[in-house]
Write a structure and sequence with these properties.
By secondary structure, this protein is an alpha+beta fold. It has 4 helices and 12 strands. The strands form 3 sheets. It has a 6-stranded antiparallel beta barrel with strand order 1-2-7-6-3-8. A 4-stranded mixed β-sheet has the order 9-12-11-10. Strands 4-5 form a two-stranded antiparallel sheet.
Length: about 240
């Protein structure tokens, strides 16, 4: 029996699975605080980490509610096609363990500010390790089936009301580069595959989407397959 105890918790700008990027680094303005528990003595165990630019987070998919193992999965980028689980980064794995490479922004006495995250709020952290580019970077590595996937060419526009409230929130200075973060998230098209293809004025799904960032609900619709409109922002 292997027992593991979390060393901390992620305090993330992403409150739900919906809208959270599927890989780290895709939303560069996303931020989180890795709050470590007192038992690991962060004031001592974090010593020396300031000299590194990036780190690995090993964490638990604590919201993974899939009880049954599936050897074949449907990655969103394969547009409905299946492939073997271990050729993907799917969170639905035999053991719900995740691995993310993030950028170190600032080290505090009780944790670390990081950016470029793909982890939701309150995720348990199992370990953190510094990224070593001279050892771990492989420029000649191949990317398998992901090399065949089409790149995202989505564009984001803003309604007058949404942009007005965004400017008010931005003026308060509480959230860094909020507009860019919202656009980075929406350009990735967080909609489930089943909703894609229903864009346009007559679609029953065109106003049914919202992502939660910080204390905000960001409502959006796809006017065209690559044309996104932010319709409104609601404070939670």
């Amino acid at each position: 029996m292997i027992e593991m105890k979390p060393i901390g918790t992620v305090e993330s700008c992403f409150l739900d699975k919906f809208g959270t990027p599927r890989q780290p680094g895709l939303a560069t303005e996303s931020r989180a605080f890795l709050r470590l528990v007192r038992e690991v003595q962060p004031e001592f165990s974090l010593e020396g980490l300031a000299g590194f630019s990036h780190l690995w987070i090993i964490f638990i998919f604590h919201k993974n509610n899939t009880a049954r193992f599936h050897a074949k999965v449907h990655p969103p980028r394969l547009n409905g096609k299946t492939t073997g689980l271990f050729s993907t980064r799917s969170p639905h794995r035999p053991n719900p363990i995740g691995l993310s490479l993030v950028k170190i922004e600032k080290i505090e006495v009780d944790g670390i500010w990081v950016s470029g995250i793909d982890i939701i709020d309150q995720t348990p952290i199992l370990d953190i390790k510094p990224y070593l580019p001279t050892i771990e970077s492989r420029p000649d590595a191949s990317s398998g089936w992901t090399d065949l996937c089409e790149s995202q060419n989505n564009m984001v526009e803003w309604s007058h009301d949404a942009l007005q409230l965004l400017n008010e929130i931005t003026a308060q200075g509480d959230i860094r580069n909020l507009k860019k973060l919202i656009e980075e998230v929406l350009i990735l098209d967080p909609r489930p595959q089943v909703y894609k293809g229903y864009e346009g004025e007559d679609s029953p799904y065109r106003e049914s989407h919202a992502v939660r960032l910080y204390n905000l609900d960001i409502h959006f619709q796809f006017l065209k397959p690559t044309h996104i409109l932010v319709t409104k922002i609601v404070r939670l």
